[in-house]
Amino acid sequence: MSDSTAQPTPPPGVRRDRDPEGRARNARPRDALGRPLPHGAEGVERVPDDFVLPPVDALAEAQRLIDAGRPFHAHEVLEGSWKAAPPEERELWKGLAQLAVGLTHAERGNAAGAARLLRRGALRIAGSAEHPPYAIAVDALVVWAQALAAEVERGGEERTVSRRPQLTSA
User: CATH code at 146?
Assistant: First the structure.
């Protein structure tokens, strides 16, 4: 579930970054909201593509990144957990990742994308509301996501979201 921001075509003579399997990777630095910066610019630390933590640690790291104003990077942490999760937890982790990328789009000013991903993520995690694992605050996250989706649809401009989600109740 990576961010859908299109990458510019490299200038003539510049080769695209590739991983050992030959898949395209973008090693350009990124800003706090995950937007690519010019080569050589100072960006924020990136989450490695293969980064996977145990669930409780992933939630703590994602929360740290969200609190630091880096929801795109929190999304990447949650995406790693989603891909590594047992089948019965994948929808929950995918929904959490969608909430983080929805927050990213809200802060970038993409109201339509933010609202869509926040609502989609809320629907996905709502299925775990009865018995949420790892003290995930499912009910509160659903309320937060729906409220933010409605707020960005009303406003739409790039902004720092004032109320950040709390992923767990612990």
Answer: 1.10.3450
Cα–Cα dist 57/40, whole Å: 32
Report the domain count for the chain.
1
Does 127 map to a domain?
A: yes
pLDDT in single tens digits along all 170 residues of the chain? 444 444 455 556 555 666 677 665 667 888 778 778 788 888 777 766 677 899 999 999 999 999 999 999 999 999 999 999 999 999 999 999 999 999 999 999 899 999 999 999 999 999 999 999 999 999 999 999 999 999 898 885 556 676 789 999 97
The parent domain of residue 71 ranges over: 55-155
| Structure tokens given for 163 | 């109320």
Is residue 168 classed exposed, middle or buried when 0-12, 13-18 and 19+ CB atoms within 10 A define those classes? middle
> Model's pTM, two decimal places?
0.80
Q: Which of 92, 15, 96, 34 is nearest to 63 (CA)?
A: 96
In this structure, is residue 136 part of a structural domain? Answer: yes
94 domain residue, yes or no: yes
Beta bridge partners of 25: 17
